[in-house]
Design brief:
By secondary structure, the chain is α+β, with helices and mostly antiparallel strands. Helices cover 37% and strands 18% of the residues.
Length: 295
C-alpha cells in the first residue's frame, strides 16, 4: 500500500520529492511530507481534495492509482554509497533518475481524448510523479516473526520508486487518466537511459566502470564474490525461478519470495554491513578524489 512508499528513511536527507511538470502545475514541489495530500493525489483528487482530476471512468473501483517505475542502482554503487560512505553517489543516482523521468515525461506522457466523436491519442508532456528513495532490499527471512540477526539483515540496495500518478493535464485545468502501456513497452529503454546517465555521473566522480551483460555495469574494484555475497535477495529469486528463467518467471519468483522489511535505522544497517565486510575479509575500494579545476 501507500504506507510502503511514504515510510521515512531517518538519516537520509531529501528521501522523497515531487517530480514532473504536472506536479508543478498542481503546486506540488519539494519533499513529500504530507500523507493526506499524497493520498488525495493517488485517488485522482486535487491537493485540497475538492476537485476530481480525471474524466469519467466506467469502473472507479478498478481505476489504476499509479504506475511504479523503479530505478535500481548497481550493487557495487549501493555498497560504495551506503557502506563505504560516498554520499555523492546517492546524488549521482538521484540525478540519473530525474534525467530518465524527464525523458519519460517528454516522450510517454500520453492520454486519449474524444475529438469529434473519435478517441484520439494526445501527447501532453506533463506527469505527476512521487519519488521515494529506499536504501535496503527486502529481508530473505522465511518467517515474519524471525529475529533480526545477521542471517536476516537486508542487503544494501539503493533504489528509487517513481510513482507516476494516473493524471495528466490536456488543457488548463482539464485532467485525464494516462495511457500507461508505453511505460511497460519501453521499460528496457527507460532503464537504459537511467544507467547511461548514471555511468556518466560516476565517471565525473572519477569512478571506473566495469561493463556487465545486458547493458548493466559495476564500479571498478568490486569483486564478483563481494557483489554476490550482498545479493541475497537476487540469489533467493534465482533459486526459486532457476538461472534460465524468463523475465516473467523471475517476476513471479520475485513476488513469491517477497517478504516484509525489517524496521532498522540506517546507522544500524550500516554497522551490520560493515561487520559482514570485516567478517568475510572483503575490502571496499577507497573513495576517489575528485579533481577540482579552476574555470
Amino acid at each position: 500500500g501507500q504506507d510502503y512508499y511514504v515510510q521515512r528513511v531517518p538519516g537520509l536527507p531529501n528521501d522523497s520529492r515531487w517530480l514532473g511538470q504536472g506536479a508543478t502545475r498542481l503546486g506540488l514541489q519539494g519533499e513529500i511530507n504530507d500523507p493526506i495530500i499524497f493520498n488525495r493525489i493517488l485517488k485522482g483528487k486535487s491537493p485540497g481534495g475538492r476537485t476530481k482530476l480525471y474524466q469519467k471512468s466506467r469502473n472507479l473501483k478498478r481505476r489504476m492509482a499509479a504506475v511504479d517505475l523503479t530505478f535500481c542502482s548497481p550493487k557495487s554503487l549501493s555498497l560504495q554509497a551506503l557502506v563505504q560512505g560516498d554520499l555523492d553517489l546517492i546524488e549521482a543516482h538521484r540525478e540519473a533518475v530525474n534525467y530518465a523521468i524527464a525523458f519519460v515525461e517528454e516522450n510517454y506522457a500520453v492520454t486519449r481524448v474524444m475529438v469529434k466523436g473519435n478517441r484520439s491519442v494526445v501527447t501532453t508532456g506533463n506527469l505527476v510523479i512521487a519519488a521515494f528513495d529506499h536504501i535496503d532490499a527486502r529481508s530473505v527471512a522465511p518467517d515474519k516473526g524471525a529475529a533480526a540477526d545477521k542471517a536476516t539483515i537486508p542487503d544494501p540496495h539503493l533504489h528509487t520508486h517513481c510513482l507516476v500518478m494516473n493524471l495528466t493535464e490536456v488543457r488548463e485545468k482539464s485532467w485525464y487518466c494516462i495511457e500507461n502501456k508505453n511505460f511497460y513497452r519501453n521499460q528496457m529503454e527507460i532503464g537504459g537511459i537511467y544507467r547511461q546517465r548514471l555511468a556518466q555521473n560516476l565517471q565525473t566522480l572519477n569512478y571506473g566502470i566495469i561493463p556487465r551483460p545486458k547493458g548493466l555495469f559495476d564500479l571498478e574494484g568490486y569483486s564478483d564474490e563481494l557483489i554476490r555475497h550482498f545479493s541475497k535477495r537476487r540469489r533467493k529469486i534465482l533459486e526459486k525461478a532457476g538461472n534460465n528463467a524468463s523475465p516473467r518467471q523471475r517476476d513471479q519468483a520475485w513476488a513469491k519470495t517477497r517478504h516484509y522489511k525489517l524496521p532498522l535505522l540506517p546507522e544500524d544497517l550500516k554497522n551490520y554491513w560493515l561487520e559482514e565486510v570485516k567478517e568475510h575479509g572483503f575490502v571496499l575500494p577507497p573513495i576517489p578524489k575528485v579533481q577540482v579545476t579552476d574555470n
